[in-house]
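User: Let's play a game. I give you a shape written as tokens, and you guess the letters that built it. Ready? Here's round one.
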């Protein structure tokens, strides 16, 4: 969450509307990445139609590499991962201000689909440096999700179904270090306090990170603003 919320510094200090908007996009991108177990090329291939708010699932069924959209994922045609409350809330908020290019959720500040995640990885390294962490890249989001889910008591098989690994050994051997028992986090992640936030086309919450907080203030957002 410290890394995700670190985006606020770049949003608040952005020197152009396009820069501010790109960091808002990136903040949601990171939130989905850290709390879904998706690969980077799966994230940039995600469409709004893949989000099922009723069933609380994200359908992962395409990737983008070097500008080529491919059906299916690395290990299968498609899979579903969980839509956690910490992801659902910022996605709904972002949908109100996002530019839907061919239905893709994440597009760049020029409203074009990402060809790959190279520039996003550069952005991530800049963010990580600002937050004071050692050098890591976007793939560590996936590591983090796996470790977090095991820490709160989810079975390895449950995690495998959502991250798309073919066997248990791949996960245990490649990703997992020391797992701490953090079942105290379970309710914060899966069953946060239910609060109703009314979001209109002019009231956009300041934080779109999905951070676990009690009260989120709102600011006025001009729906006619140009983001080009």
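Assistant: Ready! My guess for every position:
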């Amino acid at each position: 969450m410290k890394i995700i919320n670190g985006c606020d510094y770049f949003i608040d200090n952005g020197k152009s509307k396009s820069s501010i908007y790109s960091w808002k996009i990136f903040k949601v991108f990171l939130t989905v990445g850290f709390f879904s177990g998706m690969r980077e090329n799966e994230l940039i291939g995600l469409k709004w139609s893949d989000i099922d708010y009723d069933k609380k699932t994200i359908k992962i069924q395409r990737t983008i590499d070097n500008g080529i959209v491919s059906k299916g994922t690395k290990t299968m045609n498609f899979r579903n991962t969980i839509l956690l409350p910490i992801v659902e809330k910022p996605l709904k908020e972002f949908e109100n201000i996002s530019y839907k290019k061919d239905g893709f959720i994440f597009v760049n500040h020029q409203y074009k689909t990402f060809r790959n995640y190279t520039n996003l990885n550069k952005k991530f390294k800049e963010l990580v440096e600002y937050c004071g962490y050692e050098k890591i890249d976007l793939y560590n989001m996936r590591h983090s999700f796996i470790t977090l889910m095991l820490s709160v008591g989810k079975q390895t098989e449950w995690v495998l179904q959502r991250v798309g690994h073919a066997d248990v050994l791949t996960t245990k051997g490649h990703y997992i270090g020391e797992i701490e028992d953090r079942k105290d986090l379970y309710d914060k992640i899966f069953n946060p306090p239910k609060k109703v936030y009314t979001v209109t086309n002019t009231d956009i919450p300041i934080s779109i990170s999905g951070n676990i907080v009690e009260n989120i203030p709102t600011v006025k957002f001009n729906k006619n603003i140009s983001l080009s």
